[in-house]
């Protein structure tokens, strides 16, 4: 990420990703600490939302978010 000098990056959600993301929690924290904003994309369920929050991710994109916004 440092070589890209990106200020935002997407992490794609898929069922079961909560376990994979736990394994890279340190790397995610380091990326965020360096100033990159992470977006959890392709979010389609509450499990993903909760997993993102546990990792300090506060930006989300996907059908689950769309449905929440529809009310």
Would you summarize the structure shown here?
The protein is of the alpha/beta class. The protein has one domain. The chain contains four helices and three strands; from the N terminus they run βααβαβα.
Annotation, overall tally of beta strands:
3
Helix content: 40-55%
Query: Which overall shape is indicated by the principal axes computed on the Cα atoms?
Result: globular
Strand order of the largest sheet: 1-2-3
Total of DSSP H or I helical runs spanning 4+ residues: 4
What gap, in angstroms, lies between the N and C termini? 36 Å
N-to-C SSE string, H for helix and E for strand: EHHEHEH
- List the uncertain runs: none
| Number of structural domains | 1
What share of residues are in beta strands?
A: 15-25%
Mean pLDDT: 92
Radius of gyration, in Å, reads 12 Å
Structural class: alpha/beta
Largest sheet: 3 strands, parallel
Task: Write a structural description.
This protein has 4 helices and 3 strands. The model has no long low-confidence stretch (mean pLDDT 92). The protein has helices at residues 17-23, 25-33, 46-54, 63-70; strands at residues 8-12, 37-41, 59-60. The chain is 46% helix and 17% strand. The protein starts with 7 loop residues before the first strand and ends with a helix. The longest helix is centred in the middle third of the chain and has 9 residues, at 25-33. The protein has one domain. Strand 2, helix 3 and strand 3 (59-60) form a beta-alpha-beta unit. It is α/β, with parallel strands linked by helices.
């Amino acid at each position: 990420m440092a070589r890209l000098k990106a200020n935002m990056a997407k992490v794609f959600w898929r069922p079961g990703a909560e376990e994979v993301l736990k394994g890279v929690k340190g790397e995610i924290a380091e990326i965020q600490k360096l100033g990159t904003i992470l977006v959890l994309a392709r979010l389609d369920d509450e499990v993903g939302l909760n997993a993102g929050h546990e990792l300090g991710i506060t930006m989300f994109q996907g059908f689950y978010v769309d449905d929440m916004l529809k009310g």
